[in-house]
Amino acid sequence: MKRIHVVAAIIVDANQQQIFITRRPDHLHQGGLWEFPGGKVEVGETAESALARELFEEIGISINACEPFMQIEHDYPDKQVFLDIWQVNSFAGTAHGKEGQDCCWVSLETLVTEKSERLFDFPAANQPVLDRLAKVGI
User: Fold this and answer.
1) How many folded domains does the chain comprise?
2) Cα 87 to Cα 33: distance, rounded to the nearest angstrom
3) Domain assignment of residue 131, given as a range
4) Which residue has the higher pLDDT, 33 or 27?
């Protein structure tokens, strides 16, 4: 099974209070679930350049400052993913669903609520990210 390298961003607002999330289109793998914006790293691309490209294409922002947050390997029944998670603390532009996807800013508290009470369902591979955010914050 081929492993797919994916970059994703924890995008933090200027007040360090909220995180921007998007909903995956229904027709994609894990469709209908919420996610941290990002996408696949193309051949010959660094993770950071892929992140910049994906965030501009998907949500219309340009990164000013980012740093690695964590990396996760996760096996789904139909594919393996390597998630390269970055925290974006400064950006230019207004984050929005450039491809028509649902998106919103949510407080850290809302995002990391217990899974049984969570308002936003994420793919299983994202659970370690949510756990770490609950422990270390933004």
Assistant:
1) 1
2) 20
3) 3-136
4) 33
